[in-house]
Write a structure and sequence with these properties.
This protein is of the alpha/beta class. It is about 40% helix and about 20% strand. Mean pLDDT is about 85; it is low at about 315-320, about 480-495 and about 650-663.
């Protein structure tokens, strides 16, 4: 199996999505290639409080399992200089690296370069000869230090010269590849429509062209009547903006495909050219006047003047809107699934639904023994031991919880056979909360649209990290069970005053629901059995009516004592309302419920006689185990229904003097 690592800075960037699609489409029919894709952001320089945590995925990709790397270098160099990128590549121990758009000038690296020279010559000639433009401005991004920005600027100047047009440095702006900065650059020089001293502007990116749109609109300058605008990249913005933007398409998917081809050839030991070319295409739309503003069809003109229809993802805006609504519904469903999982084991119980909603085929959750504490200035160091805690595969209908798979991530990313032996595309995603990094997910997406996974992965990573934190917390309290200590009394973090029933001195409803759920969480994590009881005293109304409420209160107190003695100190007993009680019984199986009912019935008779009661205490109990659910409120609801079935069977046998009474 050949394993290829793909590094992109941000899945949400359209360029990244197109590039990754080109890579994975190339390998789609190859049975012996695995692709591992990571979103890294920009390390310590990442925008966002904890986005630097994504940089840790590079440590995963350094695994000996990876044979070659593909890097979206052009995007990294939008914020970095080439030296920074070369520093990153040096971490890969001389394994082949295929770089898009940037020549890394390092041994064993190969580049796929788009030569913008011919495209700029064409666009300048077009503006001059077709639209009569003579003063062409340029929106640069050389302030970023990007090699692509410098290359486009130089190629633009050459294009002017070859078309016998003068270069005027006063007509050069810098927008740093950012929409707002491009707008500011224009407004810094132009304060009114009368200041406009050029008839067209060529921009190094579509986003900067959109920034120009906003500036011109503010100044009352019309596009294309007063000024022609040309972009670069052919992003979705170019098609959806108004007027639609004339732009140079890098054909990013084709660039990704070319990188994928070279990576495979490098692995196979073939000799490669250090620099490889990938073609560009100019798409003439409304912003230069080639397509009428009134024409809202999905069309453009190519270099020959032929009218062509937009292809692929650039569909109708309404379709994009509807897709966005559908995605938001999926996010809501995923949140509903994960919010009920306090512990890792509960997350595992819901894993089938989670994988399905997240549009995944496989998912492995790999956790470190101890979390890595990373701040923004730290480089992560991959531990030599990782345990796979949860694994689910949709195709094989398999799932495991802590199957005992412990491995060295420096040698293999994930040891599951389906990942090691079957072709696939995988997303590597860090699991972190704040400055603590717990491990990573290895996810096999069902779709090639990686933008759809941005929010899904973040929701899952947050849910997993929360579950790890909660699980670690409750496991520290395991001694509450092993030492047969009353959970309610020994939990110093709880205010027992507000959680204790004043009459019976056992937990009140609030205390029972809180401590009972926590107890269930611990029980599940220990993989113990458990039964939840909903109990209701028989005949309390008759006792109150016959003997008064003081006697009724005494009956409730005695019943609470019976339940507390019948169950163990490690069980949770609480009074839910007047004569209703709840019990969470640790390590009890549903088969033992009848024996417990008989035990409590016998204790009721003994206590009633010992206290000279004019009646025999009796209580009905419904019982369910954790196979029904893992949420206490839902378990109590089910047990409540079973309780009333028992009442009907008992026919209300609560003794009072010579008769039986019941509610």
């Amino acid at each position: 199996m050949k394993n290829i690592g793909v590094l992109v800075p941000d899945f949400s960037v359209e360029h990244c999505q197109d590039f990754v699609k080109g890579v994975i489409d190339y390998y789609s029919s190859m049975p012996d290639v695995n692709v591992f894709i990571v979103q890294t952001f920009f390390g310590h320089e990442s925008i966002g409080v904890f986005n630097y945590q994504y940089w840790s995925t590079i440590e995963i990709l350094k695994s000996k399992q990876i044979n070659a790397y593909i890097i979206a270098s052009g995007l990294y160099c939008s914020q970095w200089n080439k030296n920074k990128l070369q520093e990153l590549v040096s971490k890969f121990d001389g394994r082949p690296v295929i770089s898009s758009s940037v020549d890394l000038e390092m041994e064993n690296t190969y580049s796929v370069i788009n030569d913008s020279g011919d495209s700029y010559k064409e666009i300048v000639k077009h503006l001059k000869e077709i639209h009569g433009c003579k003063k062409i401005a340029f929106m640069s991004a050389v302030s970023t230090g990007s090699p692509e920005a410098f290359d486009r600027f130089e190629k633009f100047k050459i294009a002017l010269k070859e078309n016998q047009l003068d270069f005027d440095e006063n007509l050069v702006f810098d927008g740093s590849f950012v929409e707002d900065r491009a707008k500011a650059a224009i407004l810094n020089k132009l304060h009114s429509k009368e200041d406009l001293n050029f008839d067209s502007i060529v921009c190094s990116s579509d986003l900067m062209a959109i920034g120009c749109y906003h500036a011109f609109e503010e100044l009352g300058i019309s596009v294309p009547d007063d000024v022609k605008v040309v972009g670069f990249d052919n992003t979705i913005h170019a098609y959806l903006c108004n007027p639609k933007l004339t732009t140079i398409s890098q054909n990013i998917e084709a660039q990704g495909t070319k990188c994928a081809e070279l990576a495979l050839r490098a692995i196979n030991g073939e000799k490669l050219n250090h620099i490889n070319q990938s073609g560009l295409m100019t798409m003439y739309r409304q912003s230069c006047g080639c397509v009428e503003i009134s024409n809202q069809s999905a069309s453009y003109k190519d270099s020959s003047g032929k009218i062509c229809l937009e292809q692929g993802k650039r569909g109708h805006a309404i379709d994009l809107y509807l897709d966005e609504i559908l995605e938001k519904h999926k996010y809501a469903s995923l949140l509903d699934q994960v919010k009920t999982a306090n512990t890792l084991r509960q997350l595992y119980y819901n894993i089938d639904n989670i994988v399905n909603i997240s549009m995944l085929k496989d998912m492995a959750i790999c956790l470190y023994d101890e979390p890595l504490f990373l701040n923004k200035l730290d480089d992560s160091v991959m531990p030599s031991k990782v345990e796979m805690h949860i694994y689910s595969t949709k195709n094989a209908h398999e799932k495991f919880y802590r199957p005992g798979v412990i491995f060295n991530p420096k040698k293999v990313i994930c040891p599951i056979n389906s990942i090691r032996e079957e072709r696939g595309v995988y997303i590597l995603y860090p699991i972190f909360s704040g400055e603590e990094n717990y491990g990573y997910m290895v996810c096999k997406p069902a779709k090639s649209d990686f933008n759809a996974y941005i929010v899904n992965m973040r929701i899952l990573a947050t849910a997993i990290s929360n579950s790890v934190e909660y699980t670690n917390n409750i496991m520290q309290k395991e001694q509450l069970f092993t030492e047969n200590t009353n959970l309610a009394k020994t939990n110093t973090n709880l205010s027992m005053e507000s959680k204790t029933d004043e009459l019976t001195k056992i937990l009140n409803r609030r205390g029972f629901m809180e401590i009972g759920q926590r107890s269930i969480d611990v029980i599940q994590e220990l993989n113990n059995s458990c039964v939840v009881f909903f109990a209701d005293m028989d005949g309390l109304k008759t006792i109150n009516d016959t003997y008064g409420h003081e006697m009724g209160d005494k009956a409730i107190k005695l019943q609470a004592e019976i339940l507390s003695k019948a169950f163990r100190a490690s069980d949770v007993v609480g009074r839910l309302s007047g004569d209703e009680f709840g019990i969470v019984a640790n390590s009890m199986s549903i088969e033992n419920v009848d024996a417990m009912r008989k035990k409590i019935s016998k204790m009721c008779e003994e206590v009633s006689k010992a206290n000279n009661l004019p009646f025999i205490l009796s209580i009905s109990m419904g019982a369910v185990d954790l196979s029904e659910n893992n949420i206490l409120t839902k378990l109590l609801t089910k047990a409540d229904k079973l309780l009333y079935e028992e009442k009907r069977i008992k026919h209300g046998k609560c003794k009072t003097d010579e008769s039986y009474t019941y509610k």
